[in-house]
Structure formats: C-alpha cells, structure tokens
Amino acid sequence: MDHKSSVRERVFGQLRKVAYADSRFHFDFGEFIADFQGSEQALERLVNHRFYQQAQVVFITPDNCLEMLRYRALQDGKRILMTTYSIKRGFWLLDPDTIAPERWLYAATLDGMERHGRPMTLAQIRDELPGVDYMVTGTGAINEDGVRFGKGHGFFDAEWGMLYRIGKITTETPAAAVVHDCQVLAETLYPEVFDTVVDAIFTPTRTIEVADPHKPTCGIVWDLLDPTMLATIPPLRELQRMEPQLPPL
Questions:
Q1: Taking 60 as the threshold, does the pLDDT of residue 21 lie above it?
Q2: Is 86 inside any structural domain?
Q3: Residue 229's domain spans which residues?
C-alpha cells in the first residue's frame, strides 16, 4: 500500500498540470477521477476501436473524463449501465430509446442521469438485461500492462465483481481505461486476485492493447471487503443476500 501511495502521489503531481478541477472536489484526486486536456482525442480512439464498435450495452463509470463518452454512446444507440456516488446510489440504466435526443447531453451528466435514467437492482440487471459487452473506466494511474491504481477505494473492481457474480460479464468481456499520457507508468505492477486488468488503454496520443489481461473470477471476496463499503453500498448488500441462490464460483 505504501508503494501504491507513492505512485499516486507522483502521478497526481503530474496530473494536476493537465487536469480540470472539479467544482466539488477541486484537485483532490483521491475523491474523483478528473477530466484532462486531450480527453477528446482519447475518447475518439476508444469509439473507433473494435471493442466499442461491437458493444451494445456498455458499462461506463461516473468519471469526469467519461462524460462525453456517455453522450456519444447515447448518440450511437448504445445502452449505458453505470453507477453513481461511489456506488452508494446504485446502478442506473441510460437507454437512448427512452430518453429524448435533446436530453442526451444532460442525461450523460451525473445530475442528469438520475433524472433521465432508470435505477436498477442487481436482480433486475440479471433478469432484464443481456450481457454487458464492454466495461470502461477512468483511473488514477495505470501501467502499460493494464494494471490500474485508482483512487484507492476499489469501486471498479467491486462493480466488476458484482456483474461477474450475477453472470452479466465473463473473463472474455473487454475492459478499457481512459487516461492522460502522464498517468501511464512503465514500471512493473502486480494485480491482486480481485484486480481487473484492462484490455486496452486510451490516451490522447496512444492506444495500448494488453496481452492476456488478468480478469478476476472471484466475485466479491467478502473476507477482504472493507466493512465500510458493505455498510454504505446497497448493491453489495443485495449481492450478499443473493449469494445462497447463486451458482458456486
């Protein structure tokens, strides 16, 4: 953890030079994933990549750098599954077929998604949605092998674990990270058993594809889960209640 903290400190110092401040969190990168100079070019690389082109249902995290991706996905007729407020407000579905086109841009924002999206329980996701085709996230730092260092809370790994456990994603489901070039590290990092290593990294200047990325198959490791996350995140408590009825891993 000390090594991770030192990596974040080093990267966040560089990121401050190119990031856009958040009106709520200023430059506190421990509280949000920032948008940054050149994110438009990074997103253009993503939407022209085969993973996005082949996807119909896309999970997109509520990160600042992905707001315009959510708008683009609605324009492209894709359904978006996302979470908000550190997963504490649960999963939401944005469906372009049920949102007026003139509201798509607002629906792509964190405030607008709750006005125009549909809240979904894990049971509803399991029973009503087809598989999620693509998982997209921002992150604090990442190396060229796709190992992420986020804000340190593990939200994306929890989202992967929940969706994997209810059968909506598999080890073949691609995952991607959108970051500034200064957030990409050359050093070797080692994922934990529950860490989701991405298949592709999109920066303003590069598309990095990762060979044989590690995808966790453990669901939620309850013994290692921060008790605060279980206490404050309703979907985790729902999954815990569902566990006895789910097939064994």
A1: yes
A2: yes
A3: 2-243
